[in-house]
Amino acid sequence: MSASDLDRALHATVLKREAVKEAEYRAARQKHEEEVRLGFGATDMTKEELKKLIDSDRRMYYRSEELNDKLFIQYKGWKELKNLEGWTGLRALYGECNAFDRISGLSSCRNLRSLFLQENCIKKIEGLEGCPLLWNLNLNNNFIERIEGLSHLRSLNTLTIQRNKIGFSGVDDLVHLVETTISTLDVQDNKIWDPDVLPEVFVRMGDLRVLYLKGNPCAKKIPNYRKGITAVCHNLKYLDDRPVFPEDRRAAEAFNRGGLEEERAERRRIKEEENAQHERNMKAFQDMIDNVRREKRERDSMRDEDKYTNASDPVISQERRMQQQVEKWKQAERVPAREGLVDD
After folding, report:
1. 1 Cβ neighbours under 8 A, 6+ residues apart
2. Which keywords describe this protein according to UniProt (predicted)?
3. Which of 108, 208, 298, 325 has its CA 20 to 30 A from that of 129?
């Protein structure tokens, strides 16, 4: 066989080997895609599926449903939230990235504190009557058009509801917030266009401390957005991307009173107050040092004229009392050691 024939035979062998590898790769990829496709929505949230979930991780879950305080059901493709009657001890439910179109099946979860249902297909806030202790609710990336059904949740502290469809109907879509106890509200990237939402809703929320409002059309319509909100929401501690400090609030209130000139004057007063406070602190510190030095000089001069020494002084100071106690401890440690030597 010539060299050219040998090369052609070798090349054919290589091509066959590569063809086999390509076929195996395509078969494996097709099988994986089929498994992924069947994994989304292929099952329902049945008791059997929940039991499989428990059995899949014994380090995470107890066999008895009522003993579990957390449940992770993300990325299951389930269409209905149900079959949680036995999960009476549940405190946190992680159900993001499914296909839930409504909130249901939580009537037995009376101890639930945190509910995460972001990235689903929920259109209405409902079904939370059985969760009186709910503290944190996350409904990001759904299709909710109106905030409602939360007034009975007297422990609700945090509502995160970004990227929904809230605000098309103006203030009416958010006025229910006034009846809630929400302290942290995140409504970023919604459709809130009416600037009256500030006086009609946010100002009337007595417990509001943290507000995320950016990404809504109303942010461009509220005059002097950050200063305006800071000045009227007196309890607000954090707005959008940074905290609201007391000096920021004073400057905002001054701006509302007299414009930019009044704000500059107020900032100058704030700076003068800070400098004066710094000087007072430095003076107090220096006075403390001077007093300590003066007291030491007085003690030394009195000791020079005193007939007693440190060892014979009848007035026992705290430092001397501590030294005496240390000596007693050392003496107590030496005595057993001597006794052991005698016994030997």
Report:
1. 9
2. Cell projection, Cilium, Leucine-rich repeat, Repeat
3. 208
